[in-house]
Design goal:
The chain is mostly helical. It has helices at residues 3-26, 37-44, 49-65, 78-86, 89-92, 97-122.
């Protein structure tokens, strides 16, 4: 096992641990304990850890492209680029960071609702 494999494995374990904590915490809300993960997150107005990470990466890329942040190379990756290209034009061309954040939240919220629907249709948990 290479050093990169070890780091990737450790990183994955950290994410899985955080997701377990998030699942337990969201079940504490009254009436939420029997709902699916995506439904609980939507009801609480939260995003999954993965979506929050993607949101942060998209915001960093927006800042870079608008000239307000780090160099583009430090935040661009195939994962972020793939999602950036799928954003609607009105999101990408937002006049300010605040407007971009609001618009990207709407897009991410729609992704959560789509995933919740897929879980329900396919019987996934």
């Amino acid at each position: 096992m290479t050093q990169c494999d070890k780091q990737r494995s450790h990183y994955k374990k950290n994410i899985e641990g955080l997701e377990r904590v998030q699942r337990r915490a969201t079940k504490l809300g009254k009436g939420l304990e029997h709902k699916a993960d995506g439904e609980r997150l939507r009801d609480l107005g939260l995003f999954s850890l993965e979506k929050r990470r993607l949101r942060g990466d998209l915001i960093a890329l927006y800042n870079c492209l608008k000239g307000g942040g780090r160099e583009v190379g430090s935040v661009s990756s195939p994962r972020v680029g793939k999602h950036w290209k799928r954003l609607p034009r009105e999101v990408v061309e937002s006049p300010s960071l605040e407007v971009f954040e609001r618009r990207v939240d709407v897009v991410l919220r729609d992704m959560v609702e789509w995933w919740t629907w897929q879980c329900w249709v396919n019987g996934w948990t």
